[in-house]
Amino acid sequence: MADAVSETIANLADKTLILLDDDAPFRQRLARALEARGFQVTAVESVAEALTAIAASPPAFGVMDMRLEDGNGLKAVEALHAKRPDARAIMLTGYGNIATAVAAVKSGAIDYLSKPADADDVVKALLAIEDHSPAPPENPMSADRVRWEHIQRVYTLCGQNVSETARRLNMHRRTLQRILAKRAPK
């Protein structure tokens, strides 16, 4: 399957992609992975930077985070489709629910993935044929790993404050401390 995706990317005339995410380590990892798969990636961390990059040179593809410090990634998707109607964009979010998925699709996104998303899943979603769902992931993360990643993200967003993280996750502080002390599940 990876060979078919690589072959499809190799046949694309325009491989430009904008990656909008305010989580620097995730953005850098995903940008490197997408570049390794043949895309020409412009990685930005804010809606303002994305709008400027899109206005200067609208890419063929977009991978946008939903919630950002300076706004919502939906603005960038709408701007991308205004400049380039044939562009294919997907939304990433760590806070998935039905309402935000509907809003993403209405703004022009072709798919909606939860973070942290695997680069292969992102590429499959970007290159999926209209009206066909991409194949399910080969090696999806376990439920324990998704939970652990979400807890780590909230913990980081709370400035590594255990009490604040526990309050926001609606869990006991000691339970959270035990989870944070363990290694990441596979």
UniProtKB/TrEMBL annotation:
Entry-annotated residues carrying 4-aspartylphosphate: D65
This protein's record includes keyword Cytoplasm: no
GO biological process annotation, one example: phosphorelay signal transduction system
InterPro entries for the chain: ActR_PrrA_rreg (IPR047772), Bact_response_regulator (IPR050595), CheY-like_superfamily (IPR011006), Sig_transdc_resp-reg_receiver (IPR001789)
Mitochondrion found in the keyword field: no
Entry keyword set: Phosphoprotein
Alphabetical list of Pfam families matching this protein: Response_reg
Gene3D superfamilies: 3.40.50.2300, Homeodomain-like
Lineage top rank: taxon: Bacteria
Record domain Response regulatory: where: 16-130
PROSITE patterns, alphabetized: RESPONSE_REGULATORY
PANTHER family to which the protein is assigned, alphabetical: RESPONSE REGULATORY DOMAIN-CONTAINING PROTEIN (PTHR44591:SF3), STRESS RESPONSE REGULATOR PROTEIN 1 (PTHR44591)
NCBIfam families: ActR_PrrA_rreg
UniProt-recorded name of the protein: Two-component system response regulator
Native source species: Asticcacaulis endophyticus
Gene: spdR
